[in-house]
């Protein structure tokens, strides 16, 4: 059974940073491209970033490029999202997912002063 558990969310002031983690189990993590998604209240699910398996090539949505960094540690079966220069519009529930859209429980990020 695929299990994905995101953590690391919280309340942060504008301009601050957070690092999200996603612990993966139940599948061969290193073989899968992985992604981060987010959903703000009343809005649709938004793709944020993808990292491929193997080479670890990364892709970002325009809304986060230059501020967020996706990475992975295959030895720890863990996906990360480093978020810098956070803005109020980054407030959302953040989810990690496999490339084929298997998604776990999210973690809430609130950016507010």
Summarize the structure.
The chain has strands at residues 3-7, 10-12, 18-25, 34-39, 46-51, 58-60, 68-73, 78-83, 92-98, 107-111. It has 113 residues and is mainly β. The relative contact order is 0.33.
General description of the model:
This protein has 113 residues and is an all-beta fold. Helices cover 0% and strands 49% of the residues. The protein contains no helices and ten strands. The chain has strands at 3-7, 10-12, 18-25, 34-39, 46-51, 58-60, 68-73, 78-83, 92-98, 107-111. The strands form two sheets. Strands 2-10-9-4-5-6 form a six-stranded mixed beta sheet, with no helix packed on it. A four-stranded antiparallel beta sheet has the order 1-3-8-7, with no helix packed on it. The model has no long low-confidence stretch (mean pLDDT 96).
Question: What keywords describe this structure?
Answer:
113 residues; mainly beta; six-stranded mixed beta sheet; four-stranded antiparallel beta sheet; 10 strands
Strands ordered across the widest β-sheet: 2-10-9-4-5-6
Q: Give the ordered list of helices and strands.
A: EEEEEEEEEE
Shape field: globular
Helix content: under 10%
- Helical segment tally? 0
What percent of residues are in strands?
Answer: over 45%
Distance between the termini: 40 Å
Extract low-pLDDT stretches.
none
Mean of all residue-level pLDDT scores: 96
* Rg value: 13 Å
Major β-sheet profile: 6 strands, mixed
Number-wise, the strands total: 10
Structural class by secondary-structure content: mainly beta
């Amino acid at each position: 059974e695929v299990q994905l558990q995101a953590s690391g969310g919280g309340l942060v002031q504008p301009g601050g940073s957070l690092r999200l983690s996603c612990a993966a189990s139940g599948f061969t993590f290193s073989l899968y491209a992985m992604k981060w998604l987010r959903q703000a209240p009343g809005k649709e699910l938004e793709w944020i970033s993808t990292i491929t398996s193997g080479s670890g090539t990364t892709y970002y949505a325009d809304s986060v490029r230059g501020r967020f960094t996706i990475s992975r540690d295959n030895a720890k079966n863990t996906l990360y999202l480093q978020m810098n220069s956070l803005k109020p519009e980054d407030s959302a529930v953040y989810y990690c997912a496999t490339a084929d859209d298997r998604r776990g429980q999210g973690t809430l990020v609130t950016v507010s002063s």
